[in-house]
Predict the 3D structure of the following.
Amino acid sequence: MQELRSKRAFICDMDGVIYHGDRLLPGVPEFLQWLEAQGKLYLFLTNSSERSPRELSQKLRRLGLAVSEDHFYTSALATASFLASQQPGGSAYVIGDAGLTNALYDAGFTMNNIDPDYVVVGETRTYSYEKIETAVRLVHGGARLIGTNPDMTGPTERGIVPATGALIAPIELATGCKAYFVGKPNPLIMRHALKQLGCRREETAIIGDRMDTDIVAGIESDIETVLVLSGVAQRDDLKRFAYAPRYVLNGVGDVAAT
């Protein structure tokens, strides 16, 4: 643990690590106090595309934690940055919430439900058959299919709910097109996170609750990995994977515990 605590920077997932929905998880305030007291660099890197960094900062404030918006980076921002580099000034048909559409607008994209360059899917509670139908038609018409992240499910205070991977699956099946996912475990978003922190991978650890996104993202980016059992993954799940995290902890509070 001393080696982990000596890291200069921490990339930390949010859902299942910091909170479940609107419920703060145990040990989180102590972990944040430790990060600040030790002068650590840290970034909350979430595969969720629903909220902007400002909204995430405000959410933590409602939960009793003061964290400025520069400490957040989302799959929506990574997706917008990727698409802007691929096709500057392009257009998209979006199935997603404000965090995703605003990120695309800020990257110079326009919204288009007639002949877009891309169909982009993220988490949303306004999912409908009509939107799936439109997306399928547009992909058949030549639009490229993008998912903000491949997560099939996500943890909330009400239990496990469908995430982007599950929402985009009907479009993939109906079109025969595989989506390109920008969020974890894509090394692209990890490079963005390291650039945001201004750190090298050797100085950094990633903390997450998912073997198939957080941990494999760290392994493939050669970043120290920490699995917490406060979200999706449980200890018995580890034997199903061909890779393993360096550390397995009950929650982020264990990092700060003396």
